[in-house]
Design a protein that fits this description.
The protein has 68 residues and is mainly α. It has helices spanning 20-25, 36-47, 61-67, and strands spanning 2-4, 31-33. It has one domain.
């Protein structure tokens, strides 16, 4: 699993502050890579209510085309 906050339309919003990736990365930026076992463990923690879920929403192609 690859997660890049720079591809998320929720980046720098209130929703971003409640995303598990924000808590995992803290002061890091860029791509987060998780192997299947790590992703499964994260799902278990989310299901148990111990951490916030992944709130990644891919940016639309329209925005990407405007930037590129």
């Amino acid at each position: 699993m690859f997660i890049d906050c720079n591809d998320c339309s929720q980046q720098h919003t209130e929703v971003c502050q409640d995303c598990v990736v924000t808590h995992v990365l803290r002061d890091l930026s860029g791509l987060l890579e998780m192997d299947p076992d790590q992703a499964e463990a994260l799902d278990i923690l989310v299901d148990a209510g111990l951490v916030s879920p992944l709130r990644l929403i891919q940016r639309s192609d329209e925005r990407d085309a405007a930037v590129g």
